[in-house]
């Protein structure tokens, strides 16, 4: 895993970022923000190129990655820092690098639909932006893949981006960055990640008559990993009794929602999508969808050798896990199923009134099962992307977006270049939870509040690559 930090029991600021101790390993070198040698030097350089990933001995895959490592280099910067990133494309196709969760102009956001220029084949592009807001962000390819499961989010093109704040309390002993991934994607008639619906779940958008058409092909995978190693390969996460470990979790998957547990321990969730939550809470299981990040403190108070892993047996046994090893402990890593429960964003929120919106925009999502090539297609307000002039923001106005999911799939919905506040989920109100990606459950409804304060084209989409490629997108314009 990418690990930083010996003891962080004091704030990181005002330490000089250049002097901060950040342990590295040959597999996961960290790229710290260094002083520029000249006015033309970049703070970071990323190389897009073919590479091999050794998930385990005798398990080696070919993919496209950043700077010959998976995840790509950890880009760490200070809030408000003017940052320059040079991206060198050593492949035969154009690429886009998206700075997920950052407030950047559309021409820098790394998205074709917003007008960002591509990184040309065997060429380079320079991205320049101010690092904000603070928190756990990430970067990844935003290239369309369609039926080519060796492009876009199906590749190894992803990495952590951390924007440090002077307000970070730093009350942890060790910091680790853990990215959840699948590999060797293929098309299948089954959906691996969707949990069976709970009969007690509210489903406010469930139609009276079920859609009896047969579903099209879904994207599945046979191999799973945390960072670049499957469970049992690579080094364990080594801890000491009494330590507070800050786990920065990222779902870098192209297709699946994941649910993680660490037997005998709880996760104290302190931030969602890099934004501190009003009411940190301990949970047994973290549910995290493609595009989401969860920051959680784990108190190491149960000595042993444990498996931090996906609660679905098939995914964990196929590699999604890492061994957590207390010092001076030996033996076989243990796994026990966590207590049953459902992930609920609202427990991390506050009870507070919301200012009335200037405008409410309803967004209805539907599935067209088994369309062209046997792939499901997706509709937003009755249409596949593109939408011409249907979604318009006026700068400074407060909007309420109502996401109505009339499908039997859960969808992680992402809005670029903005963050939003969760107002209610399936009728349950909440306040103070700020996100850029939210899971709307099957046949569920979520309402979010957003201030239109980032002028320019703004892409909205499901963060499942296949769903996005086949119509589940919309473009907001500023009037």
Structure description:
The chain has 479 residues and is mainly β. The chain has 2 helices and 35 strands. It is globular and about 60 Å long.
What's the topology here?
Elements: E1 2-4, E2 30-31, E3 44-56, E4 59-66, E5 72-78, E6 82-89, E7 97-100, E8 124-130, E9 135-141, E10 158-164, E11 174-183, E12 186-188, E13 218-220, E14 223-226, E15 237-239, E16 244-251, E17 258-261, E18 267-272, E19 275-283, E20 285-288, E21 293-299, E22 305-310, H1 313-317, E23 321-326, E24 359-368, E25 377-380, E26 392-393, E27 398-405, E28 411-415, E29 420-425, E30 428-429, E31 434-435, E32 437-440, E33 445-451, E34 458-462, H2 465-469, E35 473-478
Parallel strand pairs: 2-5, 3-6, 5-10, 11-16, 15-23, 24-27, 26-35
Antiparallel strand pairs: 1-11, 3-4, 6-8, 7-9, 9-10, 11-14, 12-13, 16-21, 17-20, 17-22, 18-19, 18-21, 22-23, 24-25, 27-33, 28-32, 28-34, 29-30, 29-31, 29-33, 34-35
């Amino acid at each position: 895993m990418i690990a930083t930090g010996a003891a962080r029991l004091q704030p990181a600021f005002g330490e000089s970022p250049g002097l901060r101790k950040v342990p590295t390993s040959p597999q996961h070198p960290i790229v710290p923000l260094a002083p520029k040698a000249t006015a033309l030097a970049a703070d970071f350089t990323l190389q897009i190129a073919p590479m091999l990933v050794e998930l385990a001995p005798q398990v080696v895959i070919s993919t496209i990655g950043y700077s010959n490592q998976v995840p790509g280099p950890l880009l760490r910067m200070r809030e408000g820092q003017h940052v320059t990133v040079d991206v060198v494309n050593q492949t035969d196709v154009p690429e886009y690098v998206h700075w997920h969760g950052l407030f950047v102009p559309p021409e820098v956001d790394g998205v074709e639909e917003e007008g960002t220029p591509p990184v040309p084949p065997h060429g380079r592009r320079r991205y320049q932006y101010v690092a904000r807001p603070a928190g756990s962000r990430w970067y990844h390819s935003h290239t369309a893949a369609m039926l080519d499961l060796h492009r876009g989010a199906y590749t190894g093109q992803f990495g952590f981006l951390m924007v440090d704040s002077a307000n970070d309390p730093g009350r942890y002993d060790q910091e680790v960055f853990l990215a959840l991934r699948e590999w060797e994607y293929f098309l299948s008639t089954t959906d691996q990640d969707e949990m069976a619906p709970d009969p007690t779940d509210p489903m406010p958008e469930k139609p009276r008559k079920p859609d009896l058409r047969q579903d099209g092909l879904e994207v599945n995978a046979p191999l799973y990993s945390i960072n670049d190693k499957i469970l049992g390969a690579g080094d364990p996460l080594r801890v000491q009794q009494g330590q507070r470990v800050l786990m920065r979790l990222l779902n870098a998957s192209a297709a699946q929602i994941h649910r993680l547990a660490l037997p005998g321990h709880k996760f104290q969730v302190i931030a969602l999508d890099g934004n501190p939550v009003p009411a940190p809470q301990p949970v047994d299981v973290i549910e995290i969808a493609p595009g989401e990040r969860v920051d959680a403190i784990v108190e190491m108070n149960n000595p042993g050798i444990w498996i931090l892993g996906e609660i679905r047996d098939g995914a964990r046994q196929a590699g999604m896990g890492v061994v957590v090893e207390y010092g001076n402990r030996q033996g076989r890593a243990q796994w026990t199923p966590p207590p049953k429960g459902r992930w609920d964003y609202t427990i991390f929120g506050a009870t507070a009134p919301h200012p009335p919106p200037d405008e409410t925009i309803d967004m209805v999502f539907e599935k067209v099962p088994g369309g062209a090539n046997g792939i499901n297609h997706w509709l937003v307000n009755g249409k596949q992307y593109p939408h011409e002039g249907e979604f318009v923001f006026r700068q400074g106005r407060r909007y309420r977006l109502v996401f109505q999911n009339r499908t039997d799939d859960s969808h992680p919905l992402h809005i670029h270049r903005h963050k939003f506040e969760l107002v209610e989920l399936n009728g349950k109100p909440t306040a103070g939870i700020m996100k850029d990606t939210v899971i709307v459950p099957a046949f569920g409804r979520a309402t979010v509040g957003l201030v239109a304060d980032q002028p320019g084209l703004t892409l909205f989409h499901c963060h499942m690559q296949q769903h996005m490629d086949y119509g589940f997108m919309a473009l907001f314009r500023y009037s």
